């Protein structure tokens, strides 16, 4: 095997590579061109197939009976996999589930997101949280870290509001979520258990004291006439709290970074707010906050003259699909707030398409709709710092200086 291709495959199992966008996209580009279905045997990880082309990832997404989420839904070191498998038995989030369990539980959330998440009340609350974060930028007098001071508080306070949780939960949920993204198995398991217990208590409380929020809706949801157990409800709420927080925060900070790097695109969006929907989609493509998911083949499957054997694990690289030259023929590495069509796979594809995709777009749009009319100037004040991680990631730090109106 060409040693360059071997190294490119192993890069996908190297957390630090994801903190170096140039290195990551060099590896992904080489794999797309020369080995789009590539066997990766990286030190410290169980082997897997890396799938890097947009069309192939969509094909596997459609074949959900032939490629299952369990038992290996995300890429992690083998030692952490073993520890996680023996950990909290009650925690089974949507990303761990396949049918017949996945569909009914997903339907519970889909109903709420369809009927309530994009209603005027929720939109108003999100807009108010966005306004408070931009007000906070004004209080910081022209210098802040967008990731730390703005993006993460905006996304997490938004999630807390949807769940009906007090702002006092912010620090605890933030810290537990951060520990989930680290490489320390003990910290990971402690954070996982802490989140599960926290939301199990929330779900139990909502059964006896119902309210008008997503946590209460989940606690009282039924499947085939039976109310969800506290463990099932807690697992669902953990999914919402963690996935909804990290991904939106990454796009808010990464999207602003892209606008700073492309001032003509910032001017275009500021001058014509009607392009906001396409701009949000382009930010989501550009950042790709969820870098990959894993699937496991249930039977032999041929893909691009390669046979994936039953039991083999497959990594679906969304970061690669969103830069696929065969899809983005006008230059996948050009940031364009008017890009259309934009068939990015940042929310996945198929039955496991992100449940909160429309809500995430609304939140991101609400933030920029609040910020841009008040923004007179913005510049980097230091080097941006990306998260080192193979699953979910974005900017850890984005130091900026700026001037605001009001």
Give structural notes:
- It holds the Pfam family p450.
- This protein has a five-stranded mixed beta sheet, sandwiched between helices. A three-stranded antiparallel beta sheet has the order 4-14-11.
- The chain starts with a helix and ends with a strand.
- It is built from 15 helices and 14 strands.
- The chain has helices spanning 3-11, 21-34, 54-62, 78-85, 102-117, 120-139, 146-163, 170-180, 185-208, 214-219, 230-261, 263-271, 276-287, 318-321, 357-371, and strands at residues 37-40, 48-51, 67-68, 143-145, 222-223, 226-227, 292-297, 301-303, 306-308, 313-317, 375-380, 385-386, 395-397, 399-404.
- The chain has a single domain (3-404), classed as Cytochrome P450 (Cytochrome p450), CATH 1.10.630.
- α7 runs antiparallel to α11, α8 (170-180) crosses α9 and α13 packs across α15 (357-371).
- With 406 residues, it is an alpha+beta fold.
Could you name the key traits of this structure?
five-stranded mixed β-sheet; steroid hydroxylase activity; 406 residues; alpha+beta; cholest-4-en-3-one 26-monooxygenase activity; Cyt_P450; 15 helices; iron; three-stranded antiparallel β-sheet; Cytochrome p450
